[in-house]
Amino acid sequence: MVVPEVVVAATKVAGLLRRLLAWSGSARRTHVFTYTLRRLCAVLPRQQAARGASLFVSASPFVKGGLRGIFALAWRKSPRTPLCQRGDEQAVRLDPVVASPFVKGGLRGIFALAWRKSPRTPICQRGDEQAVRLDPVVASPFVKGGLRGIFALAWRKSPRTPLCQRGDEQAVRLDPVVARPLVNGRLTGIFAAALLLCLPLSAAVLPEDAAEAMYHSYQGGGMDIGGPALLIRKKVDERFALSGKYYVDAISGASVDVVTTASPYTEKRNEYSVGANWLNGRTLVSVDATRSSESDYEASTYGVSVSQEVFGDMTTVTLGFSYGDDTVGKRGDDSFSEPAEHRRYQLGLSQILTPEWVVGLNLEAVVDDGYLNNPYRSVRYLDSSAAKGYSYQPELYPGSRNGGAIGVISSYYLPWRAALDGYYRYYGDSWDIRAHSLEFEYRHALGDRWILSGRANLYRQDQAEFYSDLYAYADAQNYLARDKELSNFSSWTLGLGARYSPPWPTGWPGVRPELLLEWDFMNFDYDNFRDLRGDAPVGQEPLYGFTANVVRASLMFYY
Amino acid sequence: MRLTAPLLLVGSAVLLLTGCATPEPWVKPYERQHLADPIMLRDGFPLAEGHKLHVHEAREAARGADGSAGGGCGCN
Lengths: 559, 76
Known about the structure:
The complex is a heterodimer. Chain A is built from eight helices and 26 strands.
């Protein structure tokens, strides 16, 4: 029979509620509980099962065994998410009404997960209300600088009453009367009971544990570059995370500036990287080391950065430094080995301006020393004795290059769940190169599963002071370059992307995949770099230009 | 549109100038759900974002100040 089943279920629920109440020691809740139980007991024997069930679920996020409304949302959007967190501390209060995650005698879903894994320590008490700390087994609703989703919604709409304070932590209660149940985007009573006390604790969290596998491909300008890449990051605890990366560039072909003087080649570059993040309150320290190897180029790079959140976590200041130590070789010449060093100094400032708008300012100085040119590349000069009217000699760059860049970025959240980014960068260096980069990106959500994006990038640079496509005679200057990347040129890029979160069995809580597919179309037009592959008279060759297609396919697994 | 923030900013500035108070953070943590939305993340896929920057950096003379953490590509 159905009715006895409901009674049995209610009895089990009652037992669990009693345990919960014994823990909380709440006289008021006991009263509420007793009242509810009395109502249940009074109704169940006499009424139909449906009546009894509806009475029960009226105080439950579960409708016939399933999560509903806010709880379903919470479950879907924030697996393994506690209510609030600061560092390794959490203040949470479960109200008896929240005992609604207890269904048919057991805790369910996220509640079961959190409850089972989390030891509870009372933090403070006022009257019959108590704040407890759950072990931070679970992430927090604070994601990169703020409360997210439903939590924020509830918080904004609910009056808050301070309950108790310990140090700089404060437990508050959301008023369950005003914070009404959330159905179709509106708050309802159960939710208020579920959220209860959460305080705006620290926003800083380490990134989620994740593994990313990517395949990338670049085709254009005679070059074909592609390969796989793999990234894994894992939190050791809530303060410490490790990451590892492997990246491959398989290169074939030859770009136009060597095709006329050297033969096409194939090459493979392997890059290995390890990193660690350490979060201490509002300070994030990151270190990483990278090793890149190809047959004629070895590079080691070491980086450290410190990020600090200040001003109510509205401002993030980042300082970074990296050092790169390269060894340049030459195919077919084992005795050739030249060093190069790179130092980069970074200062970043990120500022929240409004609840929808965040801006950033980045400054960077780059100092290069050593062998900075390419051992295979040549410059050309007029030579009337040569059949084509010109001859080649090896390029020669200065032994140092000091550059500086200033970048500003703006990200704006649009009310239909979309984002608009604008980015501008100015770059200048001691070789007299001046460059402007401008980029806009728009991301648009389609339902809960898709995010589509479009990107436009414009780039313009002025040449290095010693660059020339055609020198008047041999050894015309101290420094010689005919690298098209040091010439006057403009480029533009149009990019499209799609991000997809596929449906995933809820039986695997905390694990979910996400897919990304991106395609960029790039166009380069050179103002003083000529294409020498034809038979045009010297100095009259057509200006060079090319297009490229770039594809990235990425699979992310959060675990 | 939201005018609270600019007004608060101006108000705080005035208070600061008159020596009455220092500016208070005006966007509370519980008002940041939009900023915390994954759609606001540019680097949700770190490898893909890194590759995008790398493709540009390898073909342009400009570098740096793109918000990415240091490091080089070992390419020339």
